[in-house]
């Protein structure tokens, strides 16, 4: 029973919601196959295809293909491909295509659990049946990510069933734009893209500028390496973004809105287009929404593959079809933005929170998180932790809780060394900073920043100078090149950090790098340059001894910088010959059961032998 | 309105930038990427100044004066220690980028930088990426050249690095370039620039050339100027005008005036 | 009532004092600028001083693509904003009378600006062939 009519009143929306709920209640079981970015890479398409293949022939009573849903990112990407069976919440990990038949025959047909597909707690070694009981999920508060993993993003009914578009009905038929802005101000929500500017204040300023035309833009550029929060929301719950944008456009007085999606996210664009079409078909976009005189169209603008286009003024130029270069923002974009008109630009996650704020109230939102950083924040927790994935926690949660309670601690029994937060603009924090709460202001004081939510955990087999080198290289590649301090300065800074990793730098170089960093920050035109030296500055602040080891001792304590390390075979070698074949330059020779010999002249420090050795017989010195 | 610069108050006009006031009052602040003919860009950062205001509760900021609009009672400092260090750093970096440019060498040495502390660019040319050439080309209406690429490898280029179809050979880019980086060649009746050849319009009377055929045609078609205005050069036009006027003058006036004077 | 710059070639004796006055009035870095006015001999003892005719429909203004030439409404002359000029020579080529000139020494384009309301040439002309009234 497809809903054909336009939903032009709150009553019609509620009636439709009821219909959808009833239809859903008829499904005895639902099989959610996660189609998040991680699971896609791990092969969930093949798994879903296998389910389809089997169910085409196998009759399972009231479980048909209608019970199967392709959902957005469920969160625990480390253990993907994920298959979740509702209503129980049975959580199957690392599912392989060869196991699909078993799932059908045992779990779906007979209700039997397949133990080895369940999550195993790394500490207690116990298997956990339901995902609700896994620490990774227990400690989270999924608000912006509320629908991820539970709905098919291409099915608007799934969204409506879970209170979708309720805020649009409420706001358009019962609130003035000023009242909407007041509620958003009350919630205290600050921009989730990293800037942390109070959204309510931004909307109010924009509305206050005299103009015939205003715009709303959603920043879906998400350029930080390792960040996929916005991607998951755009792919897995696109309607939440649309709903937030409709409320914002009403509040600010915009007739047209844009979603700027980075070039590298074609799936997000696909799901967003589907969502826009569906929303338009049902009257949530287009003319006279909810039977009022408010009309809105949302367009998608695609990036060209530039990190710098995540910067608001460069983004607006890109939308307008020009070269994506930032401009000095002494006159803010809320006053003169896209095509010189007042424009509100907010992040995907910010918009995803708006429907909740309108439905449950600004007071409710501000009761979560801290006083100055209200609500929750989504993070992509990656690196050397047991549970990598997409998480969401209240603001104020400490780094320790995130990394150990949710992340499950450092994997392979290694030691924690540092956590990098905030993307390339952020910095690295050491162990004694683990009890810092994650919010907009605290991490910044410590020399890093929360940023848009990237969190990379590093273990002791990491060289902090190498980390600085990596992030600086990224920024050098992505700088638009307009201003001298950023273009030339970051390039020279990177060159000098490379010198350190090669053991060719002096203490005078270190001084020059610190001096240069100060003036890159002061002189740069936009945020990329202004925060560009952070990877260097934060690592030098907390790991200065590592820099000095490279400079004075010509050693790399982390065992990473190739020019400064040596691989040596020690006397634990059992002569198993496992390392001989992997060596790409035939540097290892030896007979069976005799200690092997590594020729230092030939060795390229690739680490293949180290990775393969089961006996700890290779040292990195 | 009035703004304070380095301790003295100066008149400022609504809508202008701080740099406009600095230039008008002869206060020396370098600005390599600014030119009156084009919109300010904010790329070289040399014109940065420190600003504050009595209403800002002690907050100070550093902004590029070319892009910062004047406001009443703005307080500006052009030579604080940090600002000078910033200019030195920028010039130091530019010297690494263009070690052979006399203009950069001179400006850098004014700030005490004689050799760069950084790694000089390999095969360095004299382009400092100020963007003046592309901006003036846009301002003129041709858009023949643009910035291409990103970051350290950014350069001024023609579409697809081929001979630009929209160029008219006006040499605006050549003349505005602060380091004289852009090259062109006039040989006989041909001008070559950006890999394209243009025909120079030769004066029908004396053969002197002023602008290219393409530029003249553009002005004729788009700016409502009669085509024959471009047929002869300015020297010959002056002589021609004089001869034309000869026919209109009542030369007897001279005799009358002489009588007046002597009388 | 706007003043007018009056040229009466019949009174011109070709003494070139106007050229000297103009050149010295427009000095830059102690170097005399190129004169914006030229008495041109058109016959025995007949000269026509040529200076910018301050046209009503000026080709030079139309030819300037960066708006460096504009009509000064107050004093009724066409001024060249030197800081805006990019020296493309479009005005030099376009002016039908040849009144936009290239100053090779100083590498700029120049034209008569009526000395912003007090033309030196008129002040110094001994025969009142040039008058500003």
Summarize the SSE layout with pairings:
The complex is a heterotrimer of chains A (621), B (263) and C (133).
Chain A: H1 10-25, E1 30-34, H2 37-42, H3 44-57, E2 68-71, E3 83-86, E4 90-92, H4 100-110, E5 119-120, E6 127-128, H5 135-138, H6 156-161, H7 166-174, H8 177-187, H9 199-208, E7 215-220, H10 229-236, H11 238-252, E8 256-261, H12 266-281, E9 297-302, H13 312-319, E10 343-347, H14 348-360, H15 362-366, E11 376-383, E12 389-394, H16 399-406, E13 416-421, E14 427-430, H17 442-445, E15 454-459, H18 464-478, H19 484-501, H20 507-523, H21 527-530, H22 534-542, H23 544-553, E16 567-569, E17 588-589, E18 597-598, H24 608-612, E19 618-620
Parallel strand pairs in A: 1-2, 7-8, 7-10, 8-9, 11-15
Antiparallel strand pairs in A: 1-3, 3-4, 5-6, 11-12, 13-14, 13-15, 16-19, 17-18
Chain B: E1 2-5, E2 8-11, H1 18-24, E3 48-52, E4 61-64, E5 75-77, H2 81-97, H3 102-110, H4 132-140, E6 146-148, E7 155-157, H5 172-176, E8 184-187, E9 190-193, E10 196-202, E11 209-212, H6 213-222, H7 234-248, H8 253-262
Parallel strand pairs in B: 1-5
Antiparallel strand pairs in B: 1-2, 3-4, 3-5, 6-7, 8-9, 9-10, 10-11
Helix pairs in contact in B: 2-3
Chain C: E1 5-7, H1 17-25, E2 38-43, E3 46-50, H2 59-63, E4 69-72, E5 77-80, H3 90-94, E6 101-103, E7 108-110, H4 120-124, E8 130-132
Antiparallel strand pairs in C: 1-8, 2-3, 4-5, 6-7
